[in-house]
Amino acid sequence: MIKTNRGFSESLEDYLEAIYVLGGQNVRSVDLANRLGVSRASVNKAVNSLIEKQLVEKERYGGIYLTAFGRATSQGVEKKHQILKHFLTDVLGVPEATANLEACGIEHIISADTAKRIEKLIEAKKKNDPR
Amino acid sequence: MIKTNRGFSESLEDYLEAIYVLGGQNVRSVDLANRLGVSRASVNKAVNSLIEKQLVEKERYGGIYLTAFGRATSQGVEKKHQILKHFLTDVLGVPEATANLEACGIEHIISADTAKRIEKLIEAKKKNDPR
DNA sequence: CCACAATGTTAGACTTGGCTAACAATCGGA
DNA sequence: TCCGATTGTTAGCCAAGTCTAACATTGTGG
């Protein structure tokens, strides 16, 4: 309903993040499809949207490449994912599988500022209780 | 992409939560529309979906009423909202407006278990730093 | 080197969740 | 009481994001 987002849909952010995780260079549609659990056709459509938004580049039948813009954007999302995952597992004690799933959703919602605050909370916790 | 959800769409959960917040009895479409920033027509459609799913009841041109099931469900969502809001403001120091927005998104993603863990974290923080 | 498997693309359909415009019902104050 | 304003409903439209099926291209093992 209310959009917390900074310009891209959650779905497109998922695709972008996956491209980043898969190396960001010469990424194949079929690998994206497998990782995200969608059809190759859906990947094709989504990648065309990412191209329109200048987040990736690609030639017909060729591999997918992040642009500088796309790399920066996807790194931001992935960073949030890592922070959230660590928060959920290390601070809250949520099982890893659940943590990954929930991080995957929350990463599209919170601001960079909130992410930073969570990061600090993790640091503080580490100081007081360092393993 | 990956569904973390327990059966209802985020959108429907938003409607349901709003109905709860507005009293859960004899709720008017126009009030829902105003609160959620959507048209009365959209509310009408959504409420019909909620009726199908047995979450609310309503007569033609009449007010909206939560069923027992709908009340339980909406209470769960609202509870998560409150926990998240307090975590964001009291523990992290996020401004209230932002906290509400982000809580509004996260509440549809996290499990009851994770919410409970966050609640405990808030309690712990209160003990160590009670105002 | 070439046929078949794997991959990429396109077209068309479906669902969800919005919108506006027009119409129907209800409500409230003069 | 009744007329206009408010509210609810319906119909039709749109965009996003998914799917399958069919087709095009590419790549590769005999």
What keyword list fits this structure?
homodimer; 131 residues; mainly alpha; Arc Repressor Mutant, subunit A; Diphtheria Toxin Repressor, domain 2; 2 domains; two-stranded antiparallel sheet; 5% strand; elongated; DNA-binding
Describe this structure in words.
Two copies of one chain form a homodimer. Chain A has 131 residues and is mainly alpha-helical. Chain A has two domains: 10-71, Winged helix-like DNA-binding domain superfamily/Winged helix DNA-binding domain (Arc Repressor Mutant, subunit A, Orthogonal Bundle), CATH 1.10.10; 75-128, Diphtheria Toxin Repressor, domain 2. Chain A contains six helices and two strands; from the N terminus they run αααββααα. The first copy, chain A, has helices at 10-21, 29-36, 40-52, 68-91, 96-106, 112-128; strands at residues 56-58, 64-66. A two-stranded antiparallel ribbon of chain A has the order 1-2. Chain A is elongated and about 55 Å long. At the A-B interface, helix 1, helix 5 and helix 6 of A face helix 1, helix 5 and helix 6 of B. Chain A binds a DNA duplex (30 and 30 nucleotides) through residues 9, 11, 28-30, 38-46, 49, 60-62.
